[in-house]
Amino acid sequence: WHFSSYFKQSRSHSLIMESLNEAKRIAARRAIDEHVEDNSVIGIGSGSTIVFAVTRLAERVKSEKLNVICVPTSFQARQLIIENKLCLGDLETHPELDCTVDGADEVDRDLTLIKGGGGCLTQEKIVASCAKKLVIIADYTKKSERLGDQYKKGIPIEVIPIAYVPVSIKIREHFGGNVTLRMAKMKAGPLVTDNGNFILDWNFPTDKNLDWPSVNETITMIPGVVETGLFVGMTSKVYFGLPDGSVKTT
Ligand code: 5RP
């Protein structure tokens, strides 16, 4: 009995994963096909969805012989660009990008994003801020009315290591909620970002109607805060892959 219920559970888990991966793949494909042109500079986001975008980009670059320079937003993105034999660039040589394609943890009705589930929010925000447009690709579970409806892990905030306690206290005192230091896998100490910093995850109170532009500004002003995973007013377009195989754009 135990075995059969285990197999049923793991089978339904793998069906869900298949559906999510297919949703990510179709969203990524549409976004790359609609936003990448010859002779362009593209920011490459981080996470699991972006893998599908880079795969599609590599296909197009090869078959259409496109000249595309890719600027990574993380060590993971850099590796993906290299593995897919794409042309690697950086912000020193390409401070202006045509487009950045990235994933998100949650997208609300105003296209405000929570990002940084993978801890790469600072470089993602820098690269996005240098691009003419930020295009988001996501599966259907990321779409929500209000932040916090779908994504339950809170808003990631990158901090300078010595400041993680005072920053946590200040956020809690100012806005309420709960702030935790993100730990590395197997709890082997704090997770360290590509920039050598720590990540705080802020589980904000969902009963208050928080004004995200001012929340973002207030938190960014706390000494020791490097960047927040709140992306306000930056998104140009979102591609959501749906369970029925279609893509919804907003
Ligand atoms: C990493 C990010 C990712 O884009 C976000 O976490 C979404 O990841 P995934 O595509 O794996 O769901 O912001 O810092």
TrEMBL record:
Enzyme Commission (EC) number: 5.3.1.6
Presence of keyword Isomerase: yes
Record's catalysed reaction(s): aldehydo-D-ribose 5-phosphate = D-ribulose 5-phosphate
GO biological process, one term: D-ribose metabolic process
InterPro entries (UniProt xref): NagB/RpiA_transferase-like, Ribose5P_isomerase_type_A
UniProt cross-references to Pfam families, sorted A to Z: Rib_5-P_isom_A
CDD domains, A to Z: RPI_A
Superkingdom to which the source organism belongs: Eukaryota
The entry's keywords: Isomerase
Functional pathway: Carbohydrate degradation; pentose phosphate pathway; D-ribose 5-phosphate from D-ribulose 5-phosphate (non-oxidative stage): step 1/1
GO cellular component: cytoplasm
Single GO term (MF): ribose-5-phosphate isomerase activity
Family listed: Belongs to the ribose 5-phosphate isomerase family.
NCBIfam families hit by this protein: PRK00702.1 (NF001924), rpiA (TIGR00021)
UniProt protein name: ribose-5-phosphate isomerase
Source organism of this protein record: Laodelphax striatellus (Small brown planthopper)
